[in-house]
Amino acid sequence: MPLPGPLKNLFGGGRGEPSNGPAGSQPGRPPVFSRGGNESVTTRPSRGLEEFFSYIRDQSGLTILDLGGATQQNVSFITNLGHRLYSEDFLRILHETFGESNAEEEQSNAGRIEYFLRQALDYPENHFDGVLVWDVLEYLSPALLNAVIDRMHKIVRPKSYMLAFFHSDDKQDTVPFYTFRIQETNTLQVGQRGARRPAQLFNNRSLEKLFNKYESVKFFLTRERLREVIVKV
């Protein structure tokens, strides 16, 4: 019997290659929301990533969700720690569902919101032990964002952690488009491929309000003017 959509992106919990073949974008698909050609990559420490891995460091067999799309580097790093990784190309699904404009009226349509949730976050309750959210949430208009936050609260187990990034300058019209690859438990490779327009930007207070159903929110500010946010479910 064929696997439902999200399960096709499961990578095994053992050591070695992913169980479903090589990771990466589907053939022929351009990078979603890309605005440039070559990627400018920097390697830097990440307090948020270190905090995330401190939670799972002494455990094995956990189930982690990565919303940045499958990259071989992240797949190998997580599975080599003995965990299972589910990968969703969240921004590609967003673009395919609502178009590239981030228009609030499009992302407020109840039918499209429900369709998007089925495509991107169709998992059982309490399924995940952690989520690598990265920076995808700031491209969601309020109605869609609230629906996504509610859905993640259901599919992540209590006392688990989520790592999310938000740009710290809330007056920007466009923000850099980043990709995130895990180098070590406290180190990220951050690739910049141009800029894109966010649906909304956040300060610390608005982020605390956004995650008010969650147990706690902790902030770290980076040199890229990103807030690394650790959310405890």
Average pLDDT figure? 81
For the secondary structure, the number of strands is 10
CATH superfamily membership, which one? Vaccinia Virus protein VP39
Low-confidence stretches: 1-8, 13-37
* Class by alpha and beta content: alpha/beta
CATH topology: Rossmann fold
Spatial gap, N to C terminus = 34 Å
Order of helices and strands: EEHEHEHHEHEEEHEE
Q: Domains counted in the coordinates: how many?
A: 1
Architecture, CATH level 2?
Answer: 3-Layer(aba) Sandwich
Shape: globular
Query: What share of residues are in beta strands?
Result: 25-35%
Strand order in the sheet with the most strands = 1-4-3-5-6-10-9
Describe the structure.
This protein is 26% helix and 29% strand. The chain has helices spanning 47-56, 72-80, 90-98, 110-120, 142-155, 204-210; strands spanning 10-11, 40-45, 63-66, 84-87, 128-134, 156-167, 175-184, 187-196, 216-221, 226-232. Helix 3 (90-98) packs antiparallel against helix 4 (110-120). The protein has a single domain, classed as Vaccinia Virus protein VP39 (Rossmann fold), CATH 3.40.50. Strand 9 (216-221) and strand 10 (226-232) form a beta hairpin. The chain is α/β, with parallel strands linked by helices. Mean pLDDT is 81; it is low at 1-8 and 13-37. The chain is globular, with a radius of gyration of 17 Å. It has six helices and ten strands, in the order E-E-H-E-H-E-H-H-E-H-E-E-E-H-E-E. A seven-stranded mixed beta sheet has the order 1-4-3-5-6-10-9, with helices on both faces. Strands 2-8-7 form a three-stranded antiparallel beta sheet, with helices on both faces.
